[in-house]
Amino acid sequence: MSRNTQDSDIELRFHGREGAADLRQLLIDVPADAYADSELAFDSRKRFAWFVDHWSGLDGFVCVVGYDEGEPVGFAYGAPLVAGREWWQGHLEPAPRGRTFGLSELLVQPRWREGGFARRLHDSLIDGRPEELAVLLVDREHPKVQGLYESWAYEKVGERQPFNDSPTYAVMVRTLQP
Protein backbone atom coordinates (compact mmCIF):
# COMPACT_ATOMS: atom_id res chain seq x y z
CA MET A 1 0.00 0.00 0.00
CA SER A 2 1.54 3.23 -1.10
CA ARG A 3 -0.23 6.24 -2.56
CA ASN A 4 0.55 9.91 -2.90
CA THR A 5 -1.80 12.89 -2.78
CA GLN A 6 -1.34 16.64 -2.79
CA ASP A 7 -3.01 18.35 0.15
CA SER A 8 -2.72 22.14 0.47
CA ASP A 9 0.93 22.44 -0.52
CA ILE A 10 2.06 19.30 1.27
CA GLU A 11 2.41 15.95 -0.39
CA LEU A 12 0.94 13.06 1.58
CA ARG A 13 2.48 9.62 1.09
CA PHE A 14 0.70 6.59 2.46
CA HIS A 15 2.55 3.43 3.44
CA GLY A 16 1.57 0.06 4.80
CA ARG A 17 3.45 -2.62 6.63
CA GLU A 18 5.26 -3.74 3.47
CA GLY A 19 6.87 -0.29 3.03
CA ALA A 20 7.78 0.24 6.67
CA ALA A 21 11.44 -0.72 6.31
CA ASP A 22 11.94 2.14 3.86
CA LEU A 23 10.38 4.58 6.37
CA ARG A 24 12.15 3.34 9.48
CA GLN A 25 14.94 5.91 9.60
CA LEU A 26 12.59 8.82 8.94
CA LEU A 27 10.20 7.63 11.67
CA ILE A 28 13.12 7.56 14.11
CA ASP A 29 14.91 10.75 13.02
CA VAL A 30 11.91 13.12 12.98
CA PRO A 31 10.90 12.46 16.62
CA ALA A 32 14.55 12.51 17.72
CA ASP A 33 14.86 15.99 16.24
CA ALA A 34 11.54 17.16 17.70
CA TYR A 35 12.41 15.85 21.17
CA ALA A 36 16.11 16.77 21.10
CA ASP A 37 15.72 18.96 24.19
CA SER A 38 13.88 16.33 26.23
CA GLU A 39 15.73 14.80 29.15
CA LEU A 40 13.35 11.84 29.45
CA ALA A 41 14.81 8.44 28.57
CA PHE A 42 11.36 7.60 27.20
CA ASP A 43 11.96 10.20 24.43
CA SER A 44 15.26 8.67 23.34
CA ARG A 45 16.16 7.61 19.80
CA LYS A 46 16.48 4.00 21.01
CA ARG A 47 12.94 4.07 22.39
CA PHE A 48 11.53 5.59 19.19
CA ALA A 49 13.23 2.80 17.22
CA TRP A 50 11.55 0.19 19.42
CA PHE A 51 8.12 1.76 18.89
CA VAL A 52 8.62 2.07 15.13
CA ASP A 53 9.66 -1.58 14.87
CA HIS A 54 6.77 -2.72 17.07
CA TRP A 55 4.04 -0.77 15.32
CA SER A 56 5.27 -1.27 11.77
CA GLY A 57 5.24 -5.01 12.34
CA LEU A 58 1.55 -5.11 13.23
CA ASP A 59 -1.08 -6.33 10.81
CA GLY A 60 -2.91 -3.36 9.36
CA PHE A 61 -0.10 -0.86 10.09
CA VAL A 62 -0.60 2.33 8.12
CA CYS A 63 1.48 5.50 8.04
CA VAL A 64 1.01 8.83 6.31
CA VAL A 65 3.99 11.15 5.89
CA GLY A 66 3.63 14.78 4.85
CA TYR A 67 6.29 16.50 2.76
CA ASP A 68 6.83 20.15 1.94
CA GLU A 69 9.06 20.41 -1.13
CA GLY A 70 10.62 17.05 -0.29
CA GLU A 71 11.24 17.81 3.39
CA PRO A 72 9.24 15.78 5.95
CA VAL A 73 6.70 17.93 7.77
CA GLY A 74 5.58 15.11 10.03
CA PHE A 75 3.76 11.83 10.12
CA ALA A 76 0.99 9.82 11.72
CA TYR A 77 0.77 6.08 12.13
CA GLY A 78 -1.18 3.36 13.82
CA ALA A 79 -2.84 -0.02 13.43
CA PRO A 80 -5.96 -1.88 14.45
CA LEU A 81 -5.75 -3.02 18.08
CA VAL A 82 -6.22 -6.59 19.23
CA ALA A 83 -9.69 -7.21 20.65
CA GLY A 84 -9.57 -7.24 24.44
CA ARG A 85 -6.36 -5.22 24.60
CA GLU A 86 -7.67 -1.82 23.52
CA TRP A 87 -6.32 1.11 25.50
CA TRP A 88 -9.79 2.12 26.60
CA GLN A 89 -10.25 -1.23 28.42
CA GLY A 90 -11.22 -0.59 32.03
CA HIS A 91 -12.28 2.98 31.30
CA LEU A 92 -15.52 2.53 29.37
CA GLU A 93 -18.53 0.70 30.79
CA PRO A 94 -20.27 -0.80 29.06
CA ALA A 95 -17.43 -1.66 26.71
CA PRO A 96 -18.06 -0.42 23.19
CA ARG A 97 -18.69 -2.95 20.47
CA GLY A 98 -16.62 -3.11 17.36
CA ARG A 99 -13.01 -2.72 16.35
CA THR A 100 -10.58 -0.04 17.47
CA PHE A 101 -7.82 1.72 15.55
CA GLY A 102 -4.87 2.75 17.72
CA LEU A 103 -3.27 6.02 16.65
CA SER A 104 0.21 5.51 18.02
CA GLU A 105 2.03 8.59 16.80
CA LEU A 106 1.17 11.96 15.34
CA LEU A 107 4.15 14.25 15.08
CA VAL A 108 4.73 17.52 13.25
CA GLN A 109 8.18 19.07 13.11
CA PRO A 110 8.38 22.28 15.20
CA ARG A 111 8.69 24.73 12.30
CA TRP A 112 5.44 23.44 10.73
CA ARG A 113 3.34 23.53 13.87
CA GLU A 114 0.43 25.96 13.90
CA GLY A 115 -0.19 25.42 10.19
CA GLY A 116 -2.95 22.82 10.42
CA PHE A 117 -0.64 20.04 9.29
CA ALA A 118 -1.35 17.88 12.34
CA ARG A 119 -5.04 17.87 11.49
CA ARG A 120 -4.34 17.01 7.84
CA LEU A 121 -2.10 14.10 8.81
CA HIS A 122 -4.57 12.88 11.42
CA ASP A 123 -7.59 13.07 9.14
CA SER A 124 -5.74 11.45 6.26
CA LEU A 125 -4.82 8.54 8.53
CA ILE A 126 -8.25 7.85 10.04
CA ASP A 127 -10.70 8.96 7.34
CA GLY A 128 -12.38 5.92 5.83
CA ARG A 129 -11.05 3.49 8.45
CA PRO A 130 -13.25 0.38 8.83
CA GLU A 131 -12.97 0.39 12.64
CA GLU A 132 -15.74 1.85 14.78
CA LEU A 133 -13.41 3.64 17.24
CA ALA A 134 -10.08 5.42 17.27
CA VAL A 135 -8.04 5.67 20.46
CA LEU A 136 -4.87 7.57 21.31
CA LEU A 137 -2.82 8.54 24.33
CA VAL A 138 -1.82 12.11 25.20
CA ASP A 139 0.70 13.04 27.87
CA ARG A 140 -1.44 14.61 30.58
CA GLU A 141 1.26 17.24 31.07
CA HIS A 142 0.22 18.68 27.68
CA PRO A 143 -3.32 20.02 28.20
CA LYS A 144 -3.17 22.09 24.98
CA VAL A 145 -2.60 18.91 22.96
CA GLN A 146 -5.44 17.19 24.80
CA GLY A 147 -7.64 20.19 24.03
CA LEU A 148 -6.68 19.96 20.36
CA TYR A 149 -7.79 16.33 20.23
CA GLU A 150 -11.01 17.22 22.04
CA SER A 151 -11.69 19.77 19.29
CA TRP A 152 -11.33 16.84 16.83
CA ALA A 153 -14.13 14.90 18.63
CA TYR A 154 -11.96 12.81 20.98
CA GLU A 155 -13.10 12.36 24.55
CA LYS A 156 -10.87 11.65 27.55
CA VAL A 157 -12.08 8.43 29.17
CA GLY A 158 -9.31 7.75 31.68
CA GLU A 159 -5.58 7.73 32.33
CA ARG A 160 -2.88 5.10 32.07
CA GLN A 161 0.86 4.69 32.35
CA PRO A 162 1.68 1.93 29.84
CA PHE A 163 5.37 1.62 30.78
CA ASN A 164 7.22 2.16 34.05
CA ASP A 165 9.34 4.90 32.49
CA SER A 166 6.57 6.56 30.48
CA PRO A 167 4.51 9.58 31.37
CA THR A 168 0.93 9.10 32.48
CA TYR A 169 -1.34 9.58 29.52
CA ALA A 170 -4.91 10.64 29.00
CA VAL A 171 -6.75 7.88 27.13
CA MET A 172 -8.83 9.53 24.41
CA VAL A 173 -11.49 7.86 22.26
CA ARG A 174 -13.35 8.97 19.16
CA THR A 175 -16.19 7.30 17.33
CA LEU A 176 -15.39 6.82 13.66
CA GLN A 177 -18.05 7.21 11.01
CA PRO A 178 -17.99 4.36 8.48
Automatic annotation (TrEMBL):
Ranges of residues in domain N-acetyltransferase: 21-177
Pfam family, one: Acetyltransf_1
Coiled-coil ranges per UniProt: none
Recorded superkingdom: Bacteria
Xref: PROSITE patterns: GNAT
SUPFAM superfamilies named among the record's database cross-references: Acyl-CoA N-acyltransferases (Nat)
Name listed for the protein in its UniProt record: GNAT family N-acetyltransferase
Species annotation: Streptomyces coffeae
